[in-house]
Amino acid sequence: MQLWWFVPFWKTLHVLGIALLMGVVLAVDLRIFGVAKGLPGRPLQRLMPWAAGGFAVSLVSGAVLVRANPQQYFGAPLNLVFYAKILCLVLIGLNDVLYFATGLKRDVDGVVAGQAASASAKIVASVSLALWFSAIYLGITLPFFGVTP
Amino acid sequence: MMSVWSWLESSAFSNWLKESPSLLAYPMVLFLHGVGLVCSAGPSAVISLRLLGVGRQLPVAPLDRYFPFIWIGFWISAASGFVMVAVDAATKLANPLFGVKMAFVAASVVLMVLVRRRVRAAGAGAREASAGRWLALASLVCWAGAIAAGRFMAFL
Questions:
Q1: Rounded distance, CA B112 to CA B8, Å?
Q2: Mutate which of A2, A18, A129 to disrupt the B interface (most B C-beta within 10 Å)?
C-alpha cells in the first residue's frame, strides 16, 4: 500500500530536477543562439555539472515512479509513448557526446564576451532544445495517450 | 466573483477542453504550463545559484538578458494555469494548496523583480552582498515551493 504522498513527493523531485537541468540547458543554448552575449562560454559551461545533478535527480525519481506503478507506463498504447520519451533521452545523450567529442564544447569554451558561437554549435543547441522539449511533451502528456473518446 | 468562475467553468470552451480526447485540448494546456515552468523557474534558478556564489568567474550583469525570456515563460505558465483553474474552478479554488501555490508564485514574482535589480547593479567580478544572497535563496525556495504545491494539489 502506497502512502498518499509517495507519488506527489517523487513527482515534485522529478520536476525540480528537470527545472534545474533545463535552467542550465537553456542558459547555455540561449547563449549559443546569441542571447546574453556578454557571458563568456567557459564559465557558463562550468555550470554543466548542475545540469547533470538535476538529471540524476530526475532519473532516480522517474525510476522510482515507474517501479511503483509500472502499469501506468507500460500498458498499451502508453508504452510507445514511454519508449519514445526514453528514445529522446538517448538521442540527447548522443547529441551531447557529439558536442564533446567533436571539440564543439571546447570551441564554445573559447567564445569570449560579445562573440558569436559557431553555426555548428547553434545546430547542436537547436537539436538539444528540440529533443528536451519533446521529452517533456511526452512525459507530461503520457497519461492522455491512453484516453479513448 | 464566484459566479464569474462558475460561468467560466460551465462554458462551451471548458466542456470542450475537459471532454475532448484531442491532444490539442487539455494535454496541450498542461504541456504549455510545463514549458513555461522550465523557462521561468529554470533560468531563475541558474541566476540564483550564481548570486549564491556558484560559478564565480561568470559575470553577473549580462545575466540580465535572460529575464525577458524568463518573463515569457512566466506568462505562458500564468495563462495556461488560468485556463486550468477556469475550467475546473470549484474544485481548484477549494483545494487548500491552491492558495499556498499562488502565495509561492506571487513571492517568486516579487523576488524575480528584486533579483533582477541586483543583477543589473552588479559590477564586473564583484562578490554579491549578503542581501543579494538571501534574495537568491528565497527565490529558489519559493519556486520549489510553487512546484511542490502544484504537484501535491493534484493528489489532495
A1: 31
A2: A18
Residue B100, burial from CB neighbour count under 10 angstroms (0-12, 13-18, 19+): middle
Residue A139 belongs to what domain range? 6-143
Give pLDDT, residue A144: 85
| Number of structural domains chain A divides into | 1
Give the predicted TM-score (pTM) of the model: 0.94
Over the stretch B118-148, which tens digit does the pLDDT of each residue have? 999 987 655 667 778 999 999 999 999 999 9
The residue assigned the cell 562550468 is: A46
Nearest CA to A28 out of A17, A16, A43 is that of A43
Cell of A15: 520536476
Phi-psi category of residue A36: left, alpha or beta, with phi > 0 → left and psi -120 to 50 → alpha: left
Asked whether residue A30 is assigned to any structural domain, the reply reads yes
The mean predicted confidence, pLDDT, of chain A is 94
> Which of B53, B43, B54 minimizes the C-alpha distance to B116?
B43
Predicted-assembly ipTM surpassing the 0.90 threshold: yes
Question: CB-based contact (8 Å) between A84 and chain B?
Answer: no
